[in-house]
Design a protein that fits this description.
By secondary structure, the protein is an alpha+beta fold. It has one domain (6-221). 35% of the residues lie in helices and 31% in strands. It is built from seven helices and 13 strands. It has helices at 12-33, 77-99, 116-124, 126-132, 137-145, 162-166, 218-221, and strands at 6-7, 10-11, 37-46, 49-59, 64-70, 105-113, 152-158, 168-169, 172-178, 182-184, 193-197, 200-202, 205-207. It has a six-stranded mixed β-sheet with strand order 7-6-5-4-3-10, with helices on both faces. A three-stranded antiparallel β-sheet has the order 8-9-11. The radius of gyration is 18 Å and the shape is globular. It starts with 5 loop residues before the first strand and ends in a 6-residue tail after the last helix.
């Protein structure tokens, strides 16, 4: 009999998706609080090369662009770095044309959940990460607060509280989606979401299960602790 992992009655990918959404929301909140103009789920296509970036940010005063790749799982390191390099190559000239964001400096940040699993994964490929994404939290926070004078590449670990990853409410676990291409002005971080509830089938009947929804304010519900 095939075994399918479950979490609180829902599929395991639902938890992974919720964790990814929580990480994205924390990144958006951090950038917006540092006066970055933010776009979420920026999609691109050029000569058959297609993809999307979880978060991009722009600081006009310094002409600084930051490209943020959020990963809630760390599996194929080489493929991840290859895809990230393609985004770094294609996105800056595209956003310069699309949005007028012509960058003088570019930051590239990989965001991972805090935890021994992810830290051990990075440690196992220490030389690779040191070459591709060498900066860590202190340097990244400093660069985000005051971009430049040079570009930056680094890995940033974010700690999520339990409420950030549960993502449950009336009707059971919910998938949270951010509208593609959403732009968020500096100093604010409203995120358009599409909440989907999946019914649970019991003895031929469907019903929704869940608990009362928690507060939607991510900046107060999630704790950001980087190392």
């Amino acid at each position: 009999m095939p075994f399918e992992p479950r979490w609180r009655g829902g599929e395991l990918p639902r938890l992974v998706d919720a964790r990814h959404a929580a990480l994205v929301e924390q990144v958006v909140a951090r950038l917006a609080s540092r006066r970055w103009e933010v776009a979420v789920e920026y999609t691109f296509s050029k000569f058959g090369e297609r993809g999307s970036v979880d978060v991009i940010g722009w600081r006009a005063a310094e002409r600084a662009l930051v490209i943020v790749e959020v990963k809630s799982e760390l599996d194929d390191i080489q493929n991840m770095l290859s895809v990230l390099d393609r985004k770094v190559r294609l996105v800056p000239p595209l956003v310069a044309t699309d949005r007028g964001w012509t960058a003088a400096v570019v930051g590239v940040v990989l965001v991972l959940p805090e935890g021994s699993t992810f830290r051990d994964g990075v440690a196992r490929f220490q030389a690779t990460f040191a070459a591709a994404l060498p900066s860590r939290a202190v340097e990244i926070r400093s660069w985000i607060a005051q971009p430049g004078p040079s570009s930056l590449r680094g890995t940033w670990f974010f700690r999520l509280s339990g409420s950030s990853t549960r993502m449950e409410g009336r009707g059971g676990p919910r998938r949270i989606r951010v509208t593609k291409g959403s732009a968020i002005a500096p100093g604010s971080c409203p995120i358009n979401r599409e909440l989907r509830t999946k019914p649970v089938v019991v003895a031929g009947r469907s019903r929704s299960v869940g608990r009362p929804a928690a507060s939607s304010a991510a900046s107060s519900a999630a704790t950001m602790a980087e190392a």
